[in-house]
Amino acid sequence: MSHPNINAPFPPMEPSEPFPPMEAGKLPPLEPGQTMPPLPPMAPTGVIESPWLSETGRDIAAKVRALIPLIREQAREGEKLGCLTPDVLKAVTDAGIFKMSAPIEWGGYALGARDLVEVITVLGEADGSAGWAAFVGVGLKNLLALGPEIIEEVRADTQGWAGPSIVGASVYATKVGDARKVEDGWMVKGRWAFGSGCKHAKWALLGIEYDASVAGGSGRGVVVAQRDQYEILDDWHVMGLSGSASNSLEIIEEQFVPDHRFLDLADFPLRMQQIRDHFQGAGFQQRGLAQLLTVTLTNIAIVLGMARGALSCFAEQAKKRKPFSLPYPTIADMASVQVAAGKTLAMIKVAAATIEGVADQLDARTAAGLDFTVDEESEISLSLAYAGNLCEDAITLVQKTIGSSTASLSNPIQRFARDARVLTSHGAIRVDPQSEQNGRRILGLAPFLMFGGAVPARGNQSSKELVNK
Q1: Cβ atoms of residues 166 and 136 within 8 Å
Q2: Pair 191, 248: CB distance under 8 Å
Q3: What's the pLDDT tens digit per position in 64-109?
Q4: How far apart are CA 251 and CA 186, in angstroms?
Q5: Quick one: which of 213, 220, 361, 420 is 20 to 30 A from 306 by CA?
Q6: Are 221 and 147 in contact (CB under 8 A)?
Q7: Which residues are CB-contacts of 105 (< 8 A; sequence separation ≥ 6)?
Q8: What is the pTM of this model?
Q9: 340 touches 331 (CB < 8 A)
Q10: Cβ–Cβ under 8 Å, residues 161 and 175
């Protein structure tokens, strides 16, 4: 399938024929009461969709949009449970959410960046935690960097599973679990934070550190653990994204993990690059930095959806509610509310243009076999983080404008506001560190060595390891 080159210059415009001069007495007669002649026929109008949106992506997005009432209705219950409700989990699984980033060889769709943004944005319109569940599903790619034996184990074990096949916890974090080398494997223990989606998954990818002087290697790695090898701690009590099941995982007594479920972290970037040699589909043809930008895109897509959802709820509520102190029939009749609605729309449109434009460019480069430079990736990561903050500002504006009725826990707008604050606080998409990195480059100073725009590279005795936080 051929795709248009979105970077190609526009062809030169052919000179058009001049309009014929208007002759006196030739204008059509005016109707009674008319002061101006009728306008000429308007040119056709319409929307031209991104060429990188696939039929599969559109189909999943349509299925998810039909689920918005159910997801919103059960979002509060999900917050109490600390995870998606069983009804919502089954519904989004049936819609294909957890197949979006699965290999075609698994029966998945291997969707590109633009499709992922489209679907996850719609999920975000319903509920931030539901959008986060889809974002977690994108992390399946991390498993595919490991060897074929563990990949096949997870595939076979999760056929027909409702939820993500695997989740990650503290993979790149500064504080990870401990491991010691034994015959044919590793003995692992420790605690791992932020295991998003852990209540819905059968496997977990965990970061570890070990004694490189004994085992060789970099001293950092990842292991894949089965669900019965770790405990899920009851520690996810937070102000936002409460239904994302981002609990900590813990192994108190050492558990054995065989060698084929281990990968040295120093080998991880190259192995991620090699995924495209083993799996089909647009999502698996991305180069290294394009893979990292896809993660950022799918994260920010959630808050774009939440901003759209908040504006929709705002418009619906403003038409029904009366002002507290001014004599308008409804809040929607207030000029200040109309101005706020317009500003909110503008913020969302600007953010969407940035997010969707990056996704289109990413898919276009992937189709051409191209990647991004380090400087480009850093600049784009900053732009996406800023777009996310713009979406949070849009949600805050509609919440403050509609008034104290949004304090009710049954009002989706307050949940969007809380979830957006937590999401934009994520270490990988905070604006200030991203701005500092780009500012250093602009001012002629060397940026810090980073991986994915957010992960500092630290040296160790044998190689540079990649860590996060």
Answers
A1: no
A2: yes
A3: 999 999 999 999 999 999 999 999 999 999 999 999 999 999 999 9
A4: 13
A5: 361
A6: no
A7: 279, 280
A8: 0.88
A9: no
A10: no
